[in-house]
Amino acid sequence: MCIKANADAMPDEEVVKKVLAGEIALFEILMRRYNQRLYRVARSILRDDSEAEDVVQDALVRGYTHLNQFAGDAKFSTWLTKIAVHESFARLRRRSRFVEIDSEQEVEGNSMSLFTSKTRNPEQEVLARELSAALEAAVDTLPEAYRTVFMLRDVEEMSIAETAECLDISEEAVKTRLHRARALLRKELYSRIGTVTTQSFQFAGSRCDHVVSAVFKRIAPQENLDTNLASPR
Question: Rounded to an integer, what is the distance from CA 36 to the centroid of its chain?
Fold first, then answer.
């Protein structure tokens, strides 16, 4: 099913009104807008790809069947994300693996920024995938409370207020848990890469070939000159 571009640009609230008015097909717009966010938050809580996908489906179905309850007091994205969060925690409780972690005293910390280049060569693409895999594995080691806050704030870039509302915690708790999550991630990532630091910053492959070729081109004229000077006249 494809949705026209002009419809795809509509604000969430307008789409909701049209869906409630009977244009059910337009619900696809909302699904495509927030599928990734719902998956990420569910995955951060459950640490299971398949179950996270199930949560996305359940949250969307629940969101659709209760669409008339969306009052517009909060953003639609926050309202929908909160449904996914509640469903994820419900599943976690059913698995009897829910661990509650108390908030720690807030300490200001530095942000962990992730920078990506707009254009990458093949080597950079491989490195990006490896770094992404390392980060995902490290995030999985975080306690659930920290993991979910990190996913909403640093990955989905939701505001502190939105994150607090989705998780039903205070804004101070969001700040505290995010700081702790970043600290734990730095420690975990360093431990993962520390054993291979001697293999880092290698100068091989095409980079080495390029320099060797360039050097030979630069010394060639000098070699010819030395040969000519040494030749008998």
Answer: 10
